[in-house]
Amino acid sequence: MLDIKNLHAAVEGNAILKGINLTVKPGEVHAIMGPNGSGKSSLASVLAGRESYEVTEGSVDFLGKDLLDMSPEVRAREGLFLAFQYPVEIPGVSNINFLKTAVNEIRAYHGQPPMQAKAFLDMLKSKQKLMEFDANLMNRSLNEGFSGGEKKRNDIFQMAMLEPKLAIMDETDSGLDIDALRIVSAGVNKLRSKDNAFIMITHYQRLLEYIVPDFVHVLYNGRIVKSGTKELALELEEKGYDWLKEDIRLEEPVQ
Amino acid sequence: MTTVTRNISFNEALPALFSAQFSANGWFDGREAALKQFLALGGIPTVKTEDWKYTNVVSFFKNDLQVTLPEVPEVTAAQLEATGLILPDTFRLVLVNGVLQPHLSQLPPASQVTISKLSEAGSQPAVELYFNQSPRIGEHHFAQLNSALFNDGLFIEVKAKAQVELPVQIIHLYAAGQARLFNPRHLVVVNEGAALQIVESAAGIGLADKVVINSVMESVVAERAQFSQYQLQTGGNNLRTINQNLVEQKGKSVYNNYTFTLTESEFVRNNLNISLDEERTETHMYGFYIAAGGQLIDNHTSVDHRMPNCESNELYRGVLMDKSTGVFNGKIYVHEDAQKTNAFQQNNNLVISPEATIFTKPQLEIFADDVKCSHGCTIGQVSEDALFYLRARGIGEAEARNLLVKAFAFDITAKVNIPAVRKQVEQLASQYLNA
Lengths: 255, 435
Prior knowledge:
The complex is a heterodimer of chains A (about 260) and B (about 425). Chain A is an alpha/beta fold and about 260 residues long.
């Protein structure tokens, strides 16, 4: 589904990603962990197409197409979804109108007619129920005045509506209390299937107790320095990242 | 001699043009004094005049501009219909070149509202009391020019306690075979405890050349009365508009002004002056403008808080595209007696193109010590973060920008209480943004 090869990226000339290799297959959940500043969120931004990031080397294949060649909206229409670390508040754009526009633009891209109002509302209701999303928030402006937890839940609700093939969740657990974390995780688990895949970016092992990953990768200094199964996350929780940094320092040539 | 000849300035040509037809026109005897005051102010203002610093109108007033009392050609119902301006569920007053056309109009009940041509209202007590009496009228070059040259207009008086159920739409149509100056003049009096909403629209009918509309409306909102004025400035590209609204509010009255400038016309200047003459008044001023191409849209507003316990609230927003220019100047004067004033003012601008310009100046002058006032202005672009968020959900860049600009206007369109007006504004805004 996703094949990242030797990906290098920079912001304002500063190298942030320095050779990422990662393959994600349908049905898999990958967790990416790592200390602050290691490049986790940058990877999410590069994959979603944020324009401030410049890809300097490498390639990303998404469902057989060159992802890096696409605008952010085309990536979304092809089935990529980014759950934001900080979902944006947009006063004056109603949640419901926004979702309808998004759903119909994605449909138009795939040559489908716009959704009828009734069908859209039915879908909205069933997904609200599935995601335990407060219907009162639907008629409000997009994320305006939402609590941190409500914003994250809104992002996951959007994910349920847009039915992406690959979802990248950028620190979705940060700022969530334990109840919200449980609801968000339950939502993600309900959306998991053999056809879609998830990349979860997180600091903490806690989220991975709720959404159990197939693979765990440690990102450090712009590269994946260690990959393993969910046990790796437990080891990191126990020992922190310092032991990895030690290992890497020993491996790298003295400059 | 009826036109401004080449190589002679408007100011020099005016006395001769004036004496030809205007000096003895109708019941108003202040024309000559107004002409003198206009010339004493310096005539047509240049960019050396502070209030016209960014707005150069001198070129509009030369080279064969016709300055006469206008003819009033026949306009048919079909022509009116074709303007697309007619709003549903309203009373309607249609004016051609400033003159009321009863056969195209649907008047509100005479038991509630007196409506007549201003030219025929000279003996009305309200005209005697209020006509040409607005406090700041003497400062305005173009209001003085209008007082000297106006041909006709509307006199509207709402009887005390009358609640006019439907909005009154006023459609100003202008027809001329060559470049000319129009000076329509109106007086609106909303008496004690009455309520009135008006919606103004304007359009040219087969204009062969650019015309200048120098319009003045004086309004008086009496004690406990409510008056809402919507201006839908959507007229076509041959209108150059200088529009003056002078409003006086009496005790406990409410006045709302909504000015939407969504037009192809190259130039619009609005002057809105509100004088709060008695206590406990409430005033709301909302403006929204989109400027594109080489347009210049200029809004000058002022509020005089003269008495205690009054509240005024102003929000103007604009979108500047292409090589357009926007000007906003908002003055709030809190006079010495106006304790416990609440006055708020805000002007926000989205400058979408690198070649567009906005000059914005919020001004507050306070001479009382127990007041609550705030003012501010912002100039910015569409938020890149918001744009990315929408695009990351599959919404194309153009549509995403459109959504964000609509959202920017939303705080103002949401205040519109007449659904048909709101719909028209939203449609026009989309149309201009997508052009």
